[in-house]
Amino acid sequence: MTTENQNCNRPHSSVVVDGNDRAPARSMLRAVGFGDDDFKKPQIAIASTGSDLTPCNMHIDELATHATKGANEAGGKAVNFSTITISDGISMGTKGMRYSLVSREVIADSIETVVAGEGMDGLVAIGGCDKNMPGCMMAIARLNRPSVFVYGGSILPGIHKGQPTDIVSIFEAVGRHARGEIDDAELKEIESTCIPGPGSCGGMYTANSMASAIEVLGMSLPGSSAQLAVSEDKRIDCENAGRAVFHLIDQNLRPSDILTKKSFENAITTCITLGGSTNIILHLLAIAHSADVELSIDDFERLGEKVPLLADVKPFGKYNMSHLIRIGGIQPMMKILLDRGLLHGDCLTVTGKTIAENLQEVGPYPAYPNEQDIIRPWDQPIKETSHLRVLKGNLAPSGAVGKITGKEGLYFKGTAKVYENEEDSLQGILRGDVVAGDVVVIRNEGPAGGPGMREMLSPTSAVAGRGLIKEVALITDGRFSGGSHGFDVGHITPEAACGGPIGIVQNGDEIEIDATRNTISLNIPEDVYNVRMDAYQPAGAGEKRGVLGKYAKLVASASEGAVTDKYL
Fold first, then answer.
1. Pair 240, 221: CB distance under 8 Å
2. In sequence order, which residues have a C-beta less than 8 Å from that of residue 36 and are 6 or more positions away?
3. What is the band of 155 on the pLDDT scale with cuts at 50, 70, 90?
4. Fewer CB near the last or first residue (10 Å), C or N of the chain?
5. What is the DSSP letter of 165?
6. pLDDT band at 4 (very low <50, low <70, confident <90, very high)
7. 340-344: which pairs have CB atoms within 8 A and are 24 or more residues apart?
8. Considering the chain, what percentage of its residues have pLDDT values greater than 90?
9. What is the DSSP letter of 365?
10. Do 476 and 453 meet the contact criterion of CB atoms below 8 Å apart?
11. Average pLDDT of every residue of the chain
12. 3-state DSSP helix/strand/coil percent for the chain, to nearest 5?
């Protein structure tokens, strides 16, 4: 799967090899600022996802200048280029959201294309929003050239009536408005203040979850995941990343030396204790596939029984990433896990050192509960086992994923209320059609059926805003935002468009979800189930042309990471 780096044992890139045959390449590079000495240096690509499209990425081009500075000062020659991003927060709840997960593949393909096509020796990739982070990492894994990933950093919280707010606050405010709890003026006030500037969504949503996972994987410098977007720490992090890639080239230390089954186990374990997003399952499966590492949803279930949920963070808890940063970020948590024998300390990282060596001088979190109440002690967890539940049953034979912390309960049995797409479900919830005891079923939103596997943040937030978060469950073959919380189960596989049983559910059917036994069941007689399945005619992919059509044709299931190159 990886693209072999033909230059990894050379002192400089193939486009700058001495010889008259390379004169045309050198002339092109002279035009963009290369001097004679630069042709003797390793070329280090600086891949930016900077864009005015979203606060998550609006500052990343500026961060790229710091990575460039670090690479050049170390003795390399930095070469900058940009790739795309999609703003989940802006496209959420619209047809545009179909392109979000698709953009992960486009980003990975584009970075791979530039770096391999131009013969770069190393790579710094800087991402900020949910899909460009795993997209960068998939490219890094495929290219297998000395690389460092840099997280753009977390946003500061907004403030409304003295309380911290973020992107989820406005989604839930829409539901509160529909309920009559707040008026138009207060809705606008929340809208105007919840996103105060640059950085990724402030809770332990997908961006911060993925940043944490990538650091634990060993592909970011220590501390990189727990920094504010607008901070001197983040600028220094970028400069150090540029320098680190130069030294990785010198050592010939590549992603394949770092991305191993054990490193993925480390990332999963740490993200469970931190309350990570369901999307880490989708994205870590995809990165592992790109790295030729065998990883499955069963690994998440296996590891999840060994570690507790300790972080009281949003969306289900009280605190933002900015609060976690103040008490030390994720490294003290990694040290806790290492000391308990739950991390593989011998895994290499982009520092050239092992996880254990990087953590040697890391101290503990401040004392609980007098000095901080964000991270609980091991014997006082929020939940004794993982909140990320891998569920199977006759409704999801190939698996489904729930983010169930126990605060919303561990068991739900209710009556199906079926919607054929996200828009219809949102209108039904806001109208008041959904009542206590219902299981909202949203189908035809899977990777192929959408196409694009949209996030259901609008419906889940509407349920929360209407005060039904403990009385209503929601299931879908789509996925969830890291900001979703409640009794929610997504990634139902097979999806409706591919003939999955979610397609045969009817209004009034009984659905049972057990997050202790890890089951999800459609409680109808077996003969009725079989008759419905035999008669079911799935609609198939929702698009036949363009990027969505290509994606729908190639995409693997959610349980396989929704990658597009698995069955080529």
1. yes
2. none
3. very high
4. C
5. E
6. very low
7. 340/378, 342/269, 342/306, 342/307, 343/266, 343/269, 343/270, 344/262, 344/263, 344/265, 344/266
8. 85
9. P
10. no
11. 94
12. 40, 15, 45
Question: What DSSP letter does each residue of 379-418 carry, written as one string?
Answer: TS-SBSS-SEEEEEETTEEEEEEEE--BTTBSEEEEEEEE
Side-chain-side CA neighbours of 386 within 13 Å: the count stands at 27
Closest to 428 (Cα-Cα) out of 487, 481, 468: 468
Helices assigned H by DSSP within 162-205: 167-179, 184-193
Per-residue pLDDT, 7: 40
Record the tokens describing residue 9, joined without a space.
Answer: 């044992």
Cα distances (Å, whole numbers) of residue 414 to 38, 411, 471, 486, 516: 67, 10, 9, 15, 17
Domains detected in the chain = 14-156+197-358 (no CATH), 388-560 (3.50.30.80)
> Do residues 362 and 332 touch, judged by C-beta distance below 8 A?
yes
Phi and psi of 475, rounded to 5°? Answer: -125, 150
- Phi and psi dihedrals of 547, rounded to 5? -65, -35
Residue 191: name the closest of 210, 225, 214, 168 by CA.
Answer: 168
Which pair of tokens denotes residue 144?
């297998």
- C-alpha distances in angstroms, 183 versus 163, 231, 267, 429, 463? 18, 36, 43, 18, 18
- Between CA 305 and CA 111 the distance in angstroms is 37
pLDDT tens digits, 359-385: 999 999 999 999 999 999 999 999 999
d(CA 271, CA 209): 7
Give 81-96 as a DSSP string: EE-----HHHHTTSGG
Do 275 and 317 meet the contact criterion of CB atoms below 8 Å apart?
Answer: yes
* Cα–Cα nearest to 454, from 497, 411, 414, 412: 497
CB 340 within 8 A of CB 255: no
Query: Which run of H or of E encompasses 218?
Result: none
Task: Give the pLDDT of residue 258.
Answer: 98
Catalytic residues: 481
Whether residue 391 contacts residue 515, with contact meaning beta carbons closer than 8 Å, is answered with yes
User: Edge-to-edge strands of the sheet including 122-127?
Assistant: 77-82, 43-48, 122-127, 147-151
CA–chain centroid gap for 554, Å, is 21
| Residue pLDDT, tens place only, 60-110 | 999 999 999 999 999 999 999 999 999 888 898 889 999 999 999 999 999
**pTM value?**
0.95
Tens digit of each residue's pLDDT (9 = 90 or more) over 232-289: 999 999 999 999 999 999 999 999 999 999 999 999 999 999 999 999 999 999 999 9
Q: Name residue, tokens 């009542």.
A: 435
- pLDDT tens digits, one per residue of 294-352: 999 999 999 999 999 999 999 889 999 999 999 999 999 999 999 999 999 999 999 99
